[in-house]
Design a protein that fits this description.
This protein has three helices and 13 strands, in the order ββββββββββαββαβα. The chain is mainly beta. The strands form three sheets. It has a five-stranded mixed beta sheet with strand order 9-6-7-1-13. Strands 2-8-5-10-3 form a five-stranded antiparallel beta sheet. The protein has a three-stranded antiparallel beta sheet with strand order 4-12-11. The radius of gyration is 18 Å and the shape is globular.
Length: about 200
């Protein structure tokens, strides 16, 4: 019998614009400058562009329901062609696990000479109270949301290519490698169990 793998515990922290620097953006609170270019309704309707959203013409909306699962980070993935976005619909809290991009250049092109794995030293777990969503940078490593309660609904803005890449994963390794998705099994790649520390949930929430 093989020995139990080493465990890496990722502490929980509150998601703020400052904390997410280098990973993505908090979407929700209207802090960006109002456009001022759409004037049908005066100040009754205010339009903002809070982030630089990047994609191609292959976008789709997924309506996803997440239920509670063990706080173990089995996989991490990134997208090379779009800034994937999760917007909560039910106002319920959730946790996002993020790792900084390892293969993306500042101009958003992919440097294939760089490692195709996340840097575990940059992996962090962010608590969202349900009032805000997240728009990730191109190339940001992540696991899908960990809900605090069951029936937590999201709109996920993704490419159709990502959906196809997820459907066509390698059954032997539980990994996926496609045009807009790279998904890696952390235990298989690092020999380590990566877990979210939920013992501080009450203090962070």
């Amino acid at each position: 019998m093989s020995p139990d793998p080493d465990t890496i515990t990722v502490p929980l922290e509150r998601a703020t614009p400052e904390a997410l620097a280098g990973y993505g953006y908090v979407i929700g609170r209207p802090e960006a400058k109002v456009w001022g270019r759409i004037d049908y309704y005066g100040d009754r309707v205010q339009v903002r562009t809070p982030v630089e959203f990047i994609s191609n013409d292959d976008l789709t909306l997924n309506l996803v329901t997440f239920n509670r699962r063990e706080p173990i980070i089995h996989w991490m993935e990134y997208h090379a062609k779009h800034t994937q976005t999760f917007i909560p619909l039910s106002g319920k809290p959730f946790v996002m696990v993020l790792g900084k991009p390892t293969r993306m250049r500042p101009d958003q092109t992919c440097d294939m000479s760089q490692p195709e794995l996340p840097d575990l030293s940059t992996v962090r777990a962010f608590y969202f109270d349900g009032s805000c969503g997240i728009c990730m940078h191109v190339g940001t490593w992540h696991e899908v949301p960990f809900p605090i309660g069951d029936d937590t609904h999201f709109v996920a803005i993704v490419t159709n290519e990502t959906n196809r890449n997820l459907e066509e994963y390698d059954k032997a390794t539980s990994e996926a490698d496609g045009g807009d998705l790279l998904k890696r099994n952390l235990l298989r790649r690092f020999g380590k169990l990566v877990r979210i520390d939920l013992t501080t949930l009450a203090a962070v929430a």
